[in-house]
Amino acid sequence: MTPKTPEPRVCSVARSLEVVGEKWALLAVREVLLGNRRFDEIVRRTGAPRDTMAARLKTLVEAGVMERRQYSEHPARHEYLLTDAGKDLYPVITTLREWGDRYLSGRQGPPSTFEHSCGHTLTTRLVCESCGEPATFANSRRPKPARAGASLEG
User: How far, in Å, CA of 124 to CA of 65, rounded?
Assistant: First the structure.
């Protein structure tokens, strides 16, 4: 009998990475979050090759992360705006930036800092929305699936 090869895990992380898991995709989202909505600005601020960024922006628009809106008719020019799905990537970008600041900045320190509207330096914290406690790897778990035939109530 041949051993059964496990199937890839069905996972929202993998699904998300299909859309935003490529470097230029997240950097494009970062730029639009920072207010750079025009193609040339996005290319300049990310350093991406023009054809690569055009492909990434097309993917982000098709996935509903951004919308492309015309702002000039002669010549035809477009800008990119975040949809609600794109705006919901803000904590992902912020947390990824903080991780890079902590582990990759070296002696120079972080290249930029951000301030919350309260006036303090912005730092992120993942918390349980129900109890307000910090969510960490150590105190988070995936519930065990219900047994076949078992009641969800009991």
Answer: 22
